DNA sequence: GACGTCATGTAATCAGTTACATGATTGA
DNA sequence: TCAATCATGTAACTGATTACATGACGTC
């Protein structure tokens, strides 16, 4: 078993939850429903599907028009997915440019710090707007993650507002 | 200018905010104060400092005992840092294993889903405990980011609790 | 002298992004 | 016929992790 399985798991999860799909379809789903959870472009997805097929986790169900290849999850793939979900302790490596800017904010003078915080706030606001427009509130896959994203966005906006108040008062 | 400056910026920020330091010192600071914002080990930091010195952003101030090299930020380094802070629009690429598990949770049956959520909750609780023990509440650098981290951890725990209630009711 | 911490580095590998490349189909 | 979208891929590069390697200094 590989060390970092996240991309495979995300792909297996989509195939399991939303049925057979092509690499192209999966890339679209990454762009839309998965974007606040994990990211991957088609250049990463296509080769990964080939490797996963070689490992027996997925199989090409059929080849449609325009060379479209429909992948299905195999029983081994389903097993791998379940094992990861129930047994893998998720790592908590954070790498956030926003948090980094917040971390370094005290290096700036008051006026500049306020301007940076306002931009950060606007970013969170935009993110919240995107999540609110997202379907999947009632949808099976992704509804819990969406709720978490919404709450974190709202919390972040509150934090930005209070930080701005603090900066303006000082 | 490079595309991804985050590691450089983090190093410049630490040198600017906490004064001259060795690669070893900087690696320690990454482990302690920066860990909830950005991650980097010494194997990434040492070569990066060499490149940054070549680019004139930092300079070796002195060489101490045991081959210890003390780096200082240069005026060009300070300029690069300020420019990034005030002008760079932070990217919002999220890659969270926890959120991925939450996303895929509906694939599991009720009992398993509850067990996974309990583990996720425990993870957030542990994270909160670490952040609460962290100094830097009053400290210059990192206090805003710490406050954001604390709020997000608390929000995540609330989300986990309500999700658990929801799962148990169903 | 042995152990732990301080202190620096390289090499191999893996994950992820950007740029490049090709061709089919659909609709204006 | 032209443009947009569908659909797949490769190659080069950058960022990050893991494993390996070395040696100095302090203290028990």
From TrEMBL, chains A, B:
InterPro entries referenced in this protein's UniProt entry, alphabetically: Tscrpt_reg_PadR_C (IPR018309), Tscrpt_reg_PadR_N (IPR005149), WH-like_DNA-bd_sf (IPR036388), WH_DNA-bd_sf (IPR036390)
Positions of the Transcription regulator PadR N-terminal domain: 11-82
Domain Transcription regulator PadR C-terminal per the UniProt entry, residue ranges: 94-167
Superkingdom of source: Bacteria
Protein's recorded name: PadR family transcriptional regulator
């Amino acid at each position: 078993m590989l060390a970092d399985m996240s991309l495979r798991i995300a792909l297996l999860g989509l195939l399991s939850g939303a049925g057979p799909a092509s690499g192209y379809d999966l890339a679209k789903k990454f762009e839309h429903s998965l974007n606040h959870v994990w990211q991957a472009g088609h250049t990463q997805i296509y080769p990964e599907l080939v490797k996963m097929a070689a490992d027996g986790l997925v199989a090409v169900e059929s080849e449609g028009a325009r060379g479209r290849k429909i992948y299905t999850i195999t029983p081994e793939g389903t097993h791998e997915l379940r094992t990861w979900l129930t047994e893998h302790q998720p790592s908590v490596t954070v790498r956030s440019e926003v948090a980094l800017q917040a971390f370094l904010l005290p290096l700036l003078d008051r006026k500049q710090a306020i301007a940076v915080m306002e931009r950060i706030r606007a970013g969170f606001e935009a993110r919240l707007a995107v999540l609110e427009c997202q379907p999947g509130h009632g949808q099976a896959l992704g509804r819990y993650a969406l709720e978490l994203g919404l709450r974190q966005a709202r919390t972040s906006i509150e934090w930005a507002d209070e930080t701005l108040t603090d900066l303006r008062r000082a």
